[in-house]
From TrEMBL:
It comes from the Bacteria. The lineage of its organism: Bacteria, Bacillati, Actinomycetota, Actinomycetes, Micromonosporales. InterPro entries: Ferritin-like_SF, RNR-like. It comes from Phytohabitans maris. This is Ferritin-like domain-containing protein.
Amino acid sequence: MSFNLDHYKQTATAVRVDDVDFDDFRDKPLSAEAIRVLHYMTDVETHTVCYLRDLLVTPSHQNPRITAFLTMWNFEEFWHGDVIDRILDVHKEINGLPRHRSVRVAQGFMGNVVAPITQCLTAAVLGEDFIATHMTWGAVNEWSAHAAYGRLIELEQHATLTKILQRIQQQESRHLAFYMSEARERLERSRKAQRITRFALRRFWAPVGSTITPKSETRFVLNHLLGGEGGNKMVKMLDSKVDKLPGQEGLSLVTKAVRAFGVRVATA
Ligand SMILES: [Fe+2]
Ligand SMILES: [Fe+2]
């Protein structure tokens, strides 16, 4: 069943936190590990507008259904970052606009100029089939974000953090539903789109955030969330979801990607 975009447009919203007592973090602060993970997460969430910049120079931009979704998606992701910043603020951690700006400046000429131009030209050559890759990529990233929040909830066992992150997860689930329905339809109708997507995932996919944050941070976050038995289970679950997409079976995408950052993933 295809995604109900009209309903989503009408109901996209800033994640609700008006009933959350952020002072609770003063009495029961999060672990140092969780704080480090949250820095990574807000860096990624607040970078959404930059990912959007790079996507609007591709054929996805010519499809108004997709740009309507991306408009709302960008809005909701913005608030995810904002809410995480509020948690960091209570812990007296650096956050907010100066931090977001420094992440953007750190991307340098390669990230801010070469990457969007390269993506523009590559996507133009691929044409309509690029959209299937974009949608599949988006689905994998939304699965990963949902899983990462889930793991942080499990590891931290903090009622207020759980309340906030579960609400973020609900929105990630809707993002996922859009990407999934678009990816599946597009992959099902084109063998060429399947081959392009498979090649792009195998060759270029990396854990969300790893291209914009220092390697040491990606390494830490992936090991903290995905190492050990609970984390390993999540990695296998993510791989099995990718496997079910048309033409994408057997990639072991997430297993390979996280192993590259030193996460020990048991072979099944
Ligand atoms: Fe998000
Ligand atoms: Fe999302």
